[in-house]
Specification:
The chain is an alpha/beta fold. The chain is 31% helix and 17% strand.
Amino acid sequence: MKAVVNPVSSYIGRLAPSPTGYLHLGHARTFWTAQQRARAAGGRLFLRNDDLDSARVRPEFVEAMIEDLRWLGLAWEEPIVSQSQRLDRYRPALVRLHALGAIFPCHRTRRELAEASVSAPHEGGENDEPLYPPAFRPAPDAPLPPLDTAGFATNWRFRVPDGETLSFADGHSGRQVAVAGLDFGDFLVWRKDGVPSYQLACAVDDAELGVTEVVRGADLIKSTFRQLLLLRALGHREPSYFHCPLVCDDQGTRLAKRHDALALRALRQQGVNPIALLAGF
């Protein structure tokens, strides 16, 4: 399935679902918005399969994801980009951050982090991760262990510039502002199971695919500040951002993949007309 491309346009967008469950109405609205913005600009649209969470990714979710997106009438350029096939692209980024001294190894256990979070503020509300305690950081001039085989089997965190105010102009919600070290803390860029975090993989992919605008849900606004820091450190150009409002259920709770009744797969099986569904957005 090929997207219509204007050779003059420099716009590049992407769809980036994670196959850890079935897509729901919230995904449909966000991805439809992404396609509409790409088409309005006469640009290109890629499909990126964010499949690094090996514990939760399942083949049936990948298959359903592609079927659901095509059912909605979405089109993208082939081939599909799968993050699990791009590990050789993420390692050099970690090496670069290591050379810059922008990261540090984190050997704290989940229990230690949980105990520290009792008094620490949470970055995005009570359901988000707590700020990483500054006391857990090594000194800025502490020597870093090498990135040998053992180094790639280590949790690495990005050291945020405490007190720096970051901002970006969101295409939907206007100017967004956060203070590093206050609104978000040191964050994971690499996991000890040998794969990058969402933040690093997303930043590298968006840069290497030449994405000019990232369209995604408003729940990822805080992630944007983290990715802006990574893009800056790695010397990449920043894309534009458009964060879509979240879709909620009848009780006002934002949709998640556990909302089986509102999963696109379930709606397809019920014979829902996708055109009518999208017209309601």
